[in-house]
Design a protein that fits this description.
By secondary structure, this protein is mainly alpha-helical. The chain has one domain: Fe(II) trafficking protein YggX (YggX-like, Orthogonal Bundle). About 50% of the residues lie in helices and about 10% in strands. The protein is built from 3 helices and 2 strands. It has a two-stranded antiparallel ribbon. β1 and β2 (about 10-15) form a beta hairpin. α2 (about 35-55) packs across α3 (about 60-75). The relative contact order is 0.15.
Amino acid sequence: MAKLIFCKKLQKELPALEIPPMPGPKGLELMETISAEAWEAWKTHQVTLINEKRLDSSKPEDRKWIVDQMEKFFNNEDYEKPEGFKPLE
């Protein structure tokens, strides 16, 4: 049975991530506060942003921008959304 955590993004108790999604303290923090469901939603959104903004993950400024957007996404703040994008329902 999966470990449950209170997900700060979705505001309910959900299955936790099984491993940290990134190295270091930030990965451990995410594992303790973000559900697997919220992480999957972020990964999908991140790919959309990278493609639409034509970001280059080899550039430190692009990586920093993505991390900033991730923080906003998980804290339910106003984060970047693609222009004209409407998710399927």
